[in-house]
């Protein structure tokens, strides 16, 4: 039996956050969730995810509390941190999405920079020693060196979204160095699966295919994404919850990872190490849905990267786990969920 922790999950109504809360409760942890339940996408989906967590906590008689709080609201955050002595904070709340950052940059500055700084300050003031936070594969920008390794230079973001995520890594590193906060930044690679985000390709494409409407296929289908199944992502986060970062140089000597040399701060890729071509992705979706897609081929969008490909050696070495779900199996589970939830 693992040690019982009191864990704050921010972004608890979100795709990854809600799935993580379920996993934590299933494993007997005490979970407090916060989210501002913003309307970037369908609020009902967020509320339904929260209902699932509520149901599970009732069934398992586990401690779950949810508060509607924005990361920018420092007085409410202070009150929350005064009321609970958290062992660990998992910060998943953020303005996600690359394309939206071109039209609404302010949302990214507010949630991802101001909000993230508020979380770091709350940790410092309340002497909380452990942090896990969401970074993104988008920090690798147009890097041609594949697979993407945590040692690669990430100072050339091609979207404001990516710039905020790179900034989070730098901000966390400084707090980690100054105040000894043990932090792990997880670079997620295109997470998909049941209860996914309606602004991401699997959901956009599935909806249009079911409705027999055309889908936009950017870069004429010549894109690759290292799709990572939600259960594998959640397993990775959970294992990191049980194994806080340290600055034990023996761990990363051979990788000569400079970031961890100065602070108990680590960066880990959470990917599938298996890039999938966009045309193949559509083919598998068509097969599972049983309907042919109507394709509208288009040029690449500004801010989009052509290929993502995760080196997951460091993740595996740290938590003794690497994502295992095949793309074909993951899409099957995703389409089953989509059918049940949206079509009935
Ligand atoms: N899903 C992916 O493929 C992916 C890939 C890379 C990184 N990430 C990162 O992982 C994290 C979780 O992503 P997700 O896919 O679950 O996104 P999501 O949008 O489903 O979840 C984020 C949640 O945070 C909440 N939120 C946003 N701003 C907030 C604020 N200022 N205060 C309080 N709550 C706020 C939203 O309401 C939402 O419910 C994000 O940080 C995202 O950038 C996700």
UniProtKB/TrEMBL annotation:
Domain NAD-dependent epimerase/dehydratase per the UniProt entry, residue ranges: 7-246
Keywords from the UniProt entry: Isomerase, NAD
EC number(s) on file: 5.1.3.12
UniProt-recorded Gene Ontology molecular function terms: isomerase activity
Entries under Gene3D superfamilies matching the protein: NAD(P)-binding Rossmann-like Domain (3.40.50.720), UDP-galactose 4-epimerase, domain 1 (3.90.25.10)
Key word Isomerase present: yes
InterPro entries: Epimerase_deHydtase, NAD(P)-bd_dom_sf
Pfam family, one: Epimerase
The protein's name in its UniProt record: Putative nucleotide sugar epimerase
Organism: Prochlorococcus marinus str. MIT 9302
The organism's taxonomic lineage, starting at the top: Bacteria, Bacillati, Cyanobacteriota, Cyanophyceae, Synechococcales
């Amino acid at each position: 039996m693992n040690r019982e922790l009191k864990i704050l999950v921010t972004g608890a109504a979100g795709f990854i956050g809600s799935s993580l809360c379920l996993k934590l409760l299933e494993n007997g942890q005490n979970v407090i969730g916060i989210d501002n339940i913003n309307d970037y996408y369908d609020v009902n989906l967020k509320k339904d995810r929260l209902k699932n967590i509520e149901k599970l906590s009732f069934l398992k008689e586990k401690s779950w509390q949810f508060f509607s709080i924005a990361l920018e609201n420092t007085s409410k955050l202070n009150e929350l941190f005064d009321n609970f002595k958290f062992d660990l904070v998992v910060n998943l709340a953020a303005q996600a999405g690359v394309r939206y950052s071109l039209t609404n940059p302010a949302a990214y500055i507010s949630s991802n920079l101001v909000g993230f700084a508020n979380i770091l300050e709350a940790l410092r003031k309340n002497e909380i020693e452990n942090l896990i936070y969401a970074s993104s594969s988008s920090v690798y920008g147009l890097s041609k060196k594949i697979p993407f390794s945590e040692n690669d230079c990430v100072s050339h973001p091609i979207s404001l979204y990516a710039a905020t995520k790179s900034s989070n890594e730098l901000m966390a590193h400084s707090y980690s160095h100054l105040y000894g906060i043990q932090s792990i930044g997880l670079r997620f690679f295109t997470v998909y699966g049941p209860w996914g985000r309606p602004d991401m390709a699997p959901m956009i494409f599935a909806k249009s295919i079911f409705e027999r409407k055309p889908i936009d296929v950017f870069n004429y289908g010549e894109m690759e994404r290292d799709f990572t199944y939600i259960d594998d992502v959640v397993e990775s986060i959970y294992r990191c919850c049980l194994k806080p970062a340290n600055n034990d140089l023996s761990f990363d000597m051979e990788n000569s990872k400079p970031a961890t040399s100065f602070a108990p701060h680590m960066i880990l890729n959470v990917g599938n190490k298996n890039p999938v071509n966009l045309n193949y992705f559509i083919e598998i979706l068509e097969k599972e849905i049983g309907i042919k897609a109507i394709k509208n081929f288009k040029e690449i969008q500004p801010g989009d990267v052509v290929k993502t490909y995760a080196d997951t050696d460091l993740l595996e070495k740290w938590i003794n786990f690497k994502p295992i779900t095949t793309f074909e199996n993951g899409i099957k589970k995703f389409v089953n969920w989509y059918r049940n939830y949206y079509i009935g």
